[in-house]
Structures are given as C-alpha cells and as structure tokens.
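Question (not urgent): is this output format expected?
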Amino acid sequence: MTKQIGVIPMELYDVNLASLMLGSLMKRPQLLSLPEYPLDKATFAPSNFHQVIFVCIAKLARSGVGEVTEVEIESVLQNHVPQMEVCRDNNYLDFIYTVKELANPDNYEYYYSVIRKFALLRELDEQGVDIKEFYDTLGNESDERAKLEKLTIEQILNAVEYKANSLRTKYDSKYVREEMTVGEDIEGLLAEFDEKPSYGAFLFSPYQTELAHGFNRGHLFMRSCPSSVGKTRMAVADICGLCVDQYWDDEAQDFIPNPNYQGAGFFIHTELAQRTEMQPMFLACIANVPSNTITMGNCTEEERKRVIKAAEIIKNCDLRLIDMPDFTSANIDRKIKECVEGYGATYGCFDYMMLNSALSMEYRANTGVQAREDMALRGLATDLKAYAERYNVGLLTMTQTNGNEKQLDFPDESCISSSKASRTKVDFGCVVLAAKDRPKEMKLVEPFIKHQRERGVNNTLVPNRITYIHKSRFGEYQDRKLKIFHYFDMGTMRNTDFFVCDSYNKFVSIPKPKLK
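Got this back:
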C-alpha cells in the first residue's frame, strides 16, 4: 500500500491509517455527513495525492453516491488535468482497489482520531506551539506514537489552552483580575482587618447599613419601589450622605462635618429636569429645608441662607448631576470612567434601570436579536456591577416594581419590573413600599410603635415606609427575610428608623450602627 502511494512525509502523519480512512470513506461516503467527524482536505495535507482523493470522495458523497469506485473517481478527475497527473503518478487505480480491500469502516473512529490528532499537531506546530510533550518528531517513533494514542484531542487542546490561559492570567487584567492560593499571607490579612474592618459606608437608613454590612466601593446596590414612593429621593439622601462633607444639624443649629463623607460623587438621572427638579432635592437634603419650600419660593430669610450655604458646600465637594435620558450601557460606562478618572468619584447613582429606545438598539446591535425587556435589563445590571468593580466605585441603582408586591406578604425580587434576574448581579437589594399600602402589617406592629413611644422614642412619628431586604451578599442576616419600618421625609430626605421585623412581623433585635 505504501509503494502505491509514493513518497509522503512521515512526520506528523500516518500514511497507512490515512489510506485506510480513505478506503472506509469510499465504502461508506455517508460517514462524511456525520457532524461528530468533521473533515477537510487539510487533514491530509502531507499528501497531495490523498488530498485529491479526499476531494473526489467528498464531491461524490454530496452527489448521493452510495459507494465510490475507481470509475466514479475517474469521472470526477477527467476535467482536472493536474489532479489526474498526481493520481496517475501514484497508481491510483491500484490504490483504490487495495485500500477498499483492507479498510474496515467499523474502525473508522480509530482511523479518524489518529489522523485528526496529527492534523491538530501540525497546525499547532505551524503556529509556533511546542508540541514535544504530545509528540516529539526526533524521539523514538513507537514511544511517541504510544504517547499520542493515550491522549485525546480534547486533552491536547486543554493542555495548550491552559498554558495560554496561565499567561493571560498573569498579564491580562481584563481576563482574570487576580489569582492567589487560599491561605497566603493570613497574618497580613488579619492585620488589615484589625486596622480597617470590612464594613462599608453608611446609607441613609442605619438599619439598612447594618443589614448590608455597609456600602463598599465596587458593590452594586439596587432599590425597587412603586411610583411616588420616593426611590429618587432616597437615592439623593444616600449620595448626599456619602459625597457631601457637611450637613445642617437642627440640634447644633449649624452645618456640621459629615463623618460618613467618602469623597466626590455623581448622580446620573434620566427623567427629571436637572436644574429645577433634581437640584432642589440635594439642597433640601443638606440644608434640611423641604424641597417644596424651595421650589415654591417660600423660604424664610434664615432658610434661604441655609440653602445658599448648602449649595456652596455641595459645589466644593464636586458632586455632579448628569442628565442622560437616552442612555446606553456604553455611555454609562464612559461617563463613570470620566467621573472616576476626571475628579476622583468614589460613589455614584444611576436613576434608574429601564428600557429606552437607545438601550434597545444597543442590545440588538450587540446580540443580533430584538431586545426583550427582561433580558436587556438583566444585561444592564450585569454591566453596572462590572463598572462598579472596574472603576472601584460604589454604585446605587433603582428599578420600578411590577405590581406583584400587592399580592405578596414579603415582596422580593419577583416584584422587580421586567427582570427579577437582576437580583443575581447586585450585592444588596431591597423593595420599599409605602406603609399606608400595607395596613395589615402596620396593624400587627402597633405594639412595637406603642412601646417606642412609651420609651420616649419617635414620639411624633409613625412609620411611612417599609423596606424589605431580599438580597444581602455580605450581611450577617442574609439567611433571614427581614424588613425595616421607618419614616422617610419626602421633603428633606431625612430618615428615622423604627425597628426590624421578620417575615412573620416578629420583632428582631438588630444593632443600629452609629457614625463616629
């Protein structure tokens, strides 16, 4: 059989098995249609003759020939003079007769695996990959062949990929940010925790802060509310508490330093007029003057001075308001990068996650399919988490609820408008509802409210908001369904926490952290 084929390079090719493989294909051309055995002429590259025979068989197989003989091969070659010359030089008629006699199509899988492994090694070698660990062309042929036969194509590819990925891990920070062996430098790690415990910055609600274990940079927090409950105003309270270094204190009757101040920040919004609707909320929060007092022009002289002072304080803190109604994920990425690199933003807010035409077009351009709202918003949540980590910035975002909260005893991620899968990407998630819409719960917690009043706590206030925690990745109470009863002033964005209950409206003793 070897004599009939002529001189063919022996390195990284098995002449006999390749011949038997071609013989099997002549007997059963339908083998070429099996998806688990993909083939092309490059598989037979060391032999020009084998390549010509393979091309003929493939052409005849596509024509529906049940078995290939020398007659069919010759009919294909008669109009291709150079290829016919190659076949005649290799005594193709004798070759076809011999390989069909010797080939056993039942052994095709074995022929195929060896020949494809050689084809893979040739291609790796051409690309400059060192293949000696799989097959050393300078080694003992029988030993190298035995070594190769123990390997599968998947094992060879995995070994090559592992080497490439090891270099990628080392040099490409976008692939793997960091890799380490667990247990390294534990004493150093413990010393870091002793010096700076792993507890994030404060939110507007002390109990939310405790249940979330603080708001850290690199984390994504998501708050879901129905319309008019105040998700934007709560976010303003959070961002002011994080990114403004002074605020008005009624007890001191002056602006006092904010011990929770973290540095510059940003607030990306999508709906309200920036100068006349958004800005007054920030001024109201810092000055403790109701926003409608400001917008209606009803400030007293003293309140006016406080509002002007609050504006100076905020301006000096470099807190940016950004109006982005036609947002895309790419534009949010660009803007966050600009805020972080341009003036050192540490925390920010995106208000809020919804599907607009620009995001829909971006999603279709990136995926090739029409944007379904839940899929697009899940993708946006994934991106926001990635941006928080990439730029080491704490990100807060909001969503609308979908109405399911009206039927649930404990509203959770199923209430998130359009995409409850967004929950998987956030580090802390909650649903906030108006207490007036939860009369049954408010009736059950009346004893707790009465008890606080008897103790002289919150004498004049009644909870007007209930916050249901459905995700707390780093909190110590993440295995429990907990809710916070609190009073949120929509005018000044100031908050008063009352107590925490479980899903059965049983009082839960949670320490309320205090800023020092």
